Amino acid sequence: PMIAGISGPPGIGKTTIARALYNQLSCDFSLSYFMENVNGSSRSSLKIRFQEHLLSRILNQSGMKICHLDVRYERLRNQKVLIILDDVDHLDQLDALAGDVSRLGPGSRVIVISESQELLHQNGINYIYHVRFPSNEEALEIFCRYAFRESSPTNGFGKLSRRITELCGNLSLCLSVVGSSLRGKKKDEWENVMRRLESSVDDGYIQRALRVGYESLPDKYQILFLHIAVFFNKKDDDHVNAMLGGCNLDVRLGLRNLVNRSLIGLSTNGVITMHKLLEQTGREAIQRQELRTRHILINAHEICLILQSDTDAKAVAGISF
């Protein structure tokens, strides 16, 4: 099979491009698989996950489990397969799947997404598309698609749109988050956001822009955002609803709100995805809160301090360390 790569910095749109390719090309293949969140996976868990999915598709039986790695691939040799591996961060992960990939049928295609172009080269991948930052005009159009649902600024918002686009550093993730947060807002609210972006000189432009997206949320949805960032990324919406449904929070409405603001993705089968930069934004937001008011604790030392206090511990809803 032919193996190609997509590389570029975080938040630039690699996964978005790969998703578009997958949706466009998968109908031409007998089997297709978009493997998300390869990042951090061990060799064995990655291999089993890969084999379980393909075996389930081949035998048309969902949820198959295998307890060992000795899976026969005779039926794969005649299958034209499209595989996309998202967020690969270690050479071992590609090595773990090399044998499986080599047994795919003629015409199969594998696309590997990684921040590291060097990692792709090390694995012998020579066909690499490096996603570059959009030009100023392209970045403005991306921003406007989210802010106005148009390709250009609404009358009276041109100068503000260009300045905010510049402050977002032409990074697709920041443009989508900030643009979504400003959709339908009045001009004075835009000016306020611009001033906040300009004044946060101690933070990088990515942190500044993503913080605007988080801080634009109503308080109840900020809480939901933080829970997803710490506990529920890659979980399904039913699970989140079951865990948080008793907290005077309309979880499903909140999830739709976060999707509309480009802060999370929600797949057709209900799986929530949050970009790792937004996860980081959530954790940083927790650390900025006054310790005794935090609903979520993520630092071992602070957890000990709070749990030793009878009064301060009452606000705690979750612990992760």
From TrEMBL:
| GO molecular function (one) | ADP binding
Where does the NB-ARC domain start and stop, copy by copy?
Answer: 3-151
Question: Biological process GO terms, please?
Answer: defense response
Q: Has keyword Repeat?
A: yes
> Under which name does UniProt file this protein?
Putative disease resistance protein
Q: Tell me which residues make up the Disease resistance protein Roq1-like winged-helix domain.
A: 220-288
InterPro entries recorded for this chain? Apaf_helical (IPR042197), Disease_R_plants (IPR044974), NB-ARC (IPR002182), P-loop_NTPase (IPR027417), WHD_ROQ1-like (IPR058192)
Top-rank lineage group of the source organism: Eukaryota
Per the record, a Pfam family? Answer: WHD_ROQ1
| Keywords assigned | Leucine-rich repeat, Repeat
Is Repeat among this UniProt entry's keywords?
yes
